[in-house]
Specification:
Order of helices and strands: HHHHHH
Distance between the termini: 26 Å
Mean pLDDT: 95
Largest sheet: none
CATH architecture: Orthogonal Bundle
Number of helices: 6
Helix content: over 70%
Oligomer: single chain
Shape: elongated
Structural class: mainly alpha
Strand content: under 5%
C-alpha cells in the first residue's frame, strides 16, 4: 500500500513528463486497478509487455525524483510549516 501512495505522489508531481502511453499504463494499473492480464487484453500486447511498460514508468518516476527531488522538498516544506503560525501557514499552503 505504501508503494501505491508513494508512486501516486510521484505521478502527481511528474506525470506531465511522461508520454501519453506511459500515463495510460500507470493510470490503468494504479488508478483503475487493472491487472497486467487485463491491460494486455486492452492494449493487444502480452502480459509481460504490460508488466514491462508499467515497470518502465515506475523507473522513470524514480529517476525524476532522484534528479529533481520535488517530493523530498515538499515533505521538508510541510515539516517546516508545522512550526509556522496558522495564518502564515495557510497563505504558504495556498501557494504550494
Amino acid at each position: 500500500m505504501d508503494n501505491v501512495v508513494y508512486y501516486n505522489e510521484l505521478y502527481d508531481l511528474y506525470g506531465d513528463l511522461l508520454t501519453e502511453k506511459q500515463r495510460k499504463y500507470f493510470e490503468d494499473y494504479y488508478f483503475n486497478n487493472l491487472s497486467f492480464s487485463e491491460m494486455a487484453d486492452l492494449y493487444g500486447v502480452s502480459r509481460n509487455a504490460a508488466f514491462k511498460q508499467t515497470h518502465i514508468v515506475i523507473k522513470k518516476l524514480d529517476e525524476y525524483e532522484e534528479i529533481l527531488k520535488l517530493r523530498q522538498k515538499k515533505i521538508k516544506i510541510y515539516e517546516i510549516l508545522e512550526n509556522v503560525p496558522v495564518d502564515i501557514k495557510k497563505k504558504i499552503e495556498e501557494i504550494i
